[in-house]
Amino acid sequence: MPEQHPMRGIVLMSASLLLFSCLDAITKHLLQTYSVPLVIWARYTVHWLLMLFILGPSMGLRLLDARRPGLMLLRSLCLLATSGCGVAAFSQMPLAETSAIIYIAPVMVALLAGPMLGEKVHRHHWLAMGIGFCGMLLIAHPGGQVTPTGILLAVGAAAFFSLYQILTRKLSLTENLWALVFHPALTGSLLMSLSLPLIWPDTLPPWPDLLQLGAIGGIAVLGYAVQTRAFRHAPVSQLVPLGYSQLIWSTLLGWLVFNHLPDGPAIIGIALIAVGGLVVIRSQRTKA
């Protein structure tokens, strides 16, 4: 058992969330020039190639281990659908509002864990869902910076991510940790490569754009690695609530990079979604 250093874990977790927010910002910037499928392909391809380069020599074929291949494939497809809906939503809406809607996923997981995992759904889970729904209504208020299509895409991303997390819970009991990270990246890259002849631009992207396309995969790997290290130094109950600080980073980056700040109702809506998620996290800590 690694020695616990809670403050180190908190710092690492915060750094990983900043990395993921930067990933979203670079993705949104690239979407001003390139298609959604191309950006997703670049992210997944660089992701699995880096894992193969870093872990391949030591793990070899163990990266492909799958005791339950059907569920592993379904989980990978859920994450690919999450990326597709989420990236498409970022192409239509600001960072902060899109990130906030996607962050209703923890509440969805708490509700889906009942029928899918046999876990008890408590009243405060429904309360949290109600709070989060009210937050979504405020973000979607008339005159805001969101679109109906963008909202549907963000909700779709949250729904698919919820299914992905449920499947992760089931598979984490039987599957290798790094195989769980490697399979979705490889599956996503292979499937998106089928569309590459149709989505690749007529001319080679300039070097700054190629670096950014590569960076989104690299940042994803680095973010997961830093976050995994954080959980070695501090309990999950201390680190999971920090996840909602990513909404702060998304808001700041949306302002600094895209010159957008949410208006008053949207800020209240973002806060309500965070509160709903924290209610679920608090109840899980109490139960544990």
Automatic annotation (TrEMBL):
PANTHER family per UniProt: ACYL-MALONYL CONDENSING ENZYME-RELATED (PTHR22911), BLR2811 PROTEIN (PTHR22911:SF103)
Alphabetical list of InterPro entries matching this protein: EamA_dom (IPR000620), EmrE-like (IPR037185)
Keyword Manganese: no
One GO cellular component term noted in the UniProt record for this chain: membrane
Assigned keywords, A-Z: Membrane, Transmembrane, Transmembrane helix
Residue stretches spanning the membrane: 41-61, 73-94, 100-118, 125-143, 149-167, 179-198, 210-227, 239-258, 264-281
Name of the molecule in the record: Permease
Record domain EamA: where: 8-139, 149-281
A Pfam family assignment: EamA
Signal peptide positions (record): none
Organism: Denitratisoma oestradiolicum
